Amino acid sequence: MTAEFDRLRALLGPKGWLETDADIAPYEKEERGLFKGKAAAVARPADTNEVAEVLKICNAARIGVVPQSGNTGLVGGGVPDASGRQIVLSLARLDRVRGLDAANDTISVEAGVILADIQKRAAEAGRLFPLSLAAEGTCRIGGNLSTNAGGINVLRYGMARDLVLGLEVVLADGRVLDAMKGLRKDNTGYDLKQIFLGAEGTLGIVTAAVLKLFPAPREIETCLVAVPDPKAAIELLGRAKNESGGNVQAFELTQRRLIDYVLAHIPGTSDPLAERHDWYALIEFASGDLGGALKTMVERLLERAMEDGLVLDAAIASSEQQRKALWKLRESMTEAQKPEGASIKHDVSVPVSSVPEFLAEATALCEAMVPGARVCAFGHAGDGNIHFNISRPTDWRDADFQARRKEMNAAVHGIVGRMRGSISAEHGVGILKRDDLPKYKDPTAIELMRTLKAAFDPNNILNPGKVVP
Length: 469
What we know:
Layout: H1 2-16, E1 17-18, H2 21-24, E2 39-43, H3 48-61, E3 65-68, E4 86-90, E5 97-101, E6 106-110, H4 115-124, E7 127-128, H5 141-146, H6 154-157, E8 164-170, E9 176-179, H7 193-196, E10 205-212, E11 214-215, E12 219-227, H8 230-243, E13 248-255, H9 256-265, E14 279-287, H10 293-307, E15 313-316, H11 320-331, H12 333-337, E16 343-344, E17 347-349, H13 355-369, E18 374-380, E19 385-391, H14 398-402, H15 405-418, H16 437-440, H17 443-456
Parallel strand pairs: 2-4, 3-4
Antiparallel strand pairs: 1-2, 5-6, 6-10, 7-11, 8-9, 8-10, 12-14, 12-15, 13-14, 13-18, 16-19, 17-19, 18-19
Helix pairs in contact: 1-3, 8-10, 13-15
């Protein structure tokens, strides 16, 4: 690879080509430390043309290319293998906002723009970019689109793929697909951009996108409510959607155990309710109206739900500070699990109507398999996505619990499959779930995925070994 690396070094310059072990090390492992590889080098192109040249050189020499954005993934999709022969392609320097069209409600951005910066630019123009997740301060939009990220607002605005109007993609051989149109209507054949959204860089490298913007909400009401059980929560969700006229933008469900973890391990948090309860829902409503109508609706909704036994207690945020405090409880749950020792995690989805049944069945099965296991179920119940995590028993060693990962995954995923759900709701496939995919995905779908991979990347240089079984 010496000649190819000489060409890449000359093309990218010292800012765009990293070779020393110290410089490469941060790019070789993912956030949770489950996956670690060895890269030959890291390419950091400054624009789309440089990305194209990198892929031309690597494709001709059969050098594997692992695309990486903010490196906040959880399934190993942005990590090189252990061979030391792949290069990491960082999109971090493609960080320009190319333009914002307020009249068209679109923003055009490069793949390396940080998600929170897109939200900020939209807000400055009186608009909303609704993709929102815990890592938004460090994750980059190219990775969000390549993994089809979800987050807290899917209920109202959809997944990342639902927020894309146009896309720029560099193909394996260096050709550039320019589909950067900000059109909501374009019936000129195949919608090619959808092929690359959620493909995790295995079919092409996303370098830019045209994203949808929305009117910024003028009223937001956020409340944390205690509910008797998940069944009551799902019934409350239905009522909230109906009575608000579709103005529910987030509906999060959590067990008490997660709140206890947050209160114990995350400074600056407090319990919003006076008494403890087993289950809670964090609900956020948003409206373009002013004048307090939304608040009146929320208060009336909760009052009636209490009368009917669906809500046991509630706290409604009366300021932006209180709203942020409620969301801090939810957004800190993943971090708060770490001090509790090893955990086995599942990012799954089932039909919203099946959420209570899934939680009951999966909890009973996992507690029977490992007595003392601490189920930590939380997530985006409004769209059927549950993060079904299990902390080790307090008297177990981390390694002993991790040894049960495979059988516990099979048990949880078996329930999900029977309910016609998905074993990856929003985190992607990467390496973590690649080999399990054929067990739960239609065989014809797997065959078509392989056909697409062979057609778009015949030399298998794009994120080799990821996603496609």
